[in-house]
């Protein structure tokens, strides 16, 4: 039960970060969404053996993290939480790609290890950018931005309801687990029949709640259109942020600055 409650509070904390005030929080949600998508496209467009060219892209999430004043430890914990999925995908690369691509002294590094490192770096960059986007924008505003950018209303409404009712279902699961623990007379752990019974009760309560919510939405005249009271306006700061990020990201993508930076540092050291 404690794990369920901590997960619920952790999910709510991510949502609460969107209500802070910072230069990044005040940007238009559409601008933040477009720049994040552009960042993700640029990162994933590199080849599997391109590693050094990805390193400068770490500036984007780090800069947003600092400007938005988000807790870096929280974002790091979320990345580590889903890291096993990326590890499971890339862990076999060194086994199948054993051709040597890099020599560091007497050490030979195969293409499999380079592609594995490239995959993990791209995973960290993209997931951190997505988490920062949600943390400094809020899911409601993101759904509104998707609707304003032309995404079908049916998809946006389903996405918004799915996210919102994660909290409701988690709260329901917490109450079920707490009620069970109060009736277990100090016994720890759950047997398989008990878990199956709790899941069945959760499913039945979910179906009942979904029916009641559907009837309530119909009574209030819901017609499938997403309406929020806060208007979206793109200002000068938003345009400047979009133009600057677009120029920087495209520059990093098509003009690899790592060799030039290496030559510059080497020149300074030799001087």
Describe the structure.
Mean pLDDT is 80; it is low at 264-270. This protein has helices at 2-16, 29-44, 59-67, 72-90, 93-96, 111-137, 139-148, 153-182, 192-219, 236-254, 257-270; strands spanning 100-104, 107-110. It contains eleven helices and two strands. The chain is mainly alpha-helical. A hairpin with a 2-residue loop joins strand 1 (100-104) and strand 2 (107-110). Helix 2 (29-44) runs parallel beside helix 10 and helix 4 packs antiparallel against helix 6. Helices cover 70% and strands 3% of the residues. The chain has two domains: 17-150, no CATH class; 152-228, no CATH class.
Topology, element by element:
Blueprint: H1 2-16, H2 29-44, H3 59-67, H4 72-90, H5 93-96, E1 100-104, E2 107-110, H6 111-137, H7 139-148, H8 153-182, H9 192-219, H10 236-254, H11 257-270
Antiparallel strand pairs: 1-2
Number of domains: 2
Strand order, main sheet: write it out. Answer: 1-2
The major beta sheet can be summarized as:
2 strands, antiparallel
Query: What sequence of helices (H) and strands (E) makes up the elements?
Result: HHHHHEEHHHHHH
Q: Care to count the β-strands?
A: 2
What is the first-to-last residue Cα distance? 63 Å
Q: Which radius of gyration do the C-alpha atoms yield?
A: 24 Å
**Average pLDDT metric:** 80
Low-confidence stretches: 264-270
What class, by secondary structure content? Answer: mainly alpha
Helical percentage: over 70%
User: Tell me, what's the shape?
Assistant: globular
The fraction of residues in strands falls at: under 5%
**Tally of DSSP helical segments:** 11
């Amino acid at each position: 039960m404690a794990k369920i409650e901590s997960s619920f509070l952790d999910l709510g904390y991510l949502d609460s970060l969107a209500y802070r005030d910072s230069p990044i929080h005040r940007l238009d949600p559409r601008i933040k969404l477009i720049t994040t998508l552009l960042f993700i496209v640029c990162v994933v467009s590199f080849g599997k053996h391109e590693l050094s060219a990805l390193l400068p892209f770490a500036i984007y999430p780090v800069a947003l993290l600092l400007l938005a004043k988000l807790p870096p430890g929280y974002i790091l914990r979320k990345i580590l939480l889903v890291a096993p999925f990326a590890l499971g995908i890339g862990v076999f690369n060194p086994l199948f790609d054993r051709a040597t691509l890099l020599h560091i002294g007497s050490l030979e590094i195969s293409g499999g290890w380079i592609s594995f490192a490239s995959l993990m770096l791209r995973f960290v960059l993209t997931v951190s950018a997505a988490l920062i986007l949600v943390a400094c924008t809020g899911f409601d505003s993101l759904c509104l931005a998707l609707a304003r950018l032309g995404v079908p209303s049916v998809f946006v409404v389903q996405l918004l309801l799915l996210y919102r009712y994660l909290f409701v279902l988690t709260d329901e699961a917490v109450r079920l687990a707490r009620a069970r623990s109060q009736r277990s007379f100090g016994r720890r752990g759950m047997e398989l029949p008990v878990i199956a019974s709790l899941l069945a009760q959760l499913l039945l309560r979910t179906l009942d709640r979904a029916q009641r919510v559907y009837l309530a939405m119909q009574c209030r005249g819901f017609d499938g259109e997403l309406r929020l009271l806060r208007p979206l306006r793109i200002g000068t700061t938003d345009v400047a942020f979009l133009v600057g990020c677009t120029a920087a990201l495209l520059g990093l993508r098509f003009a690899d600055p790592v060799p030039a930076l290496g030559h510059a540092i080497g020149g300074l050291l030799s001087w």
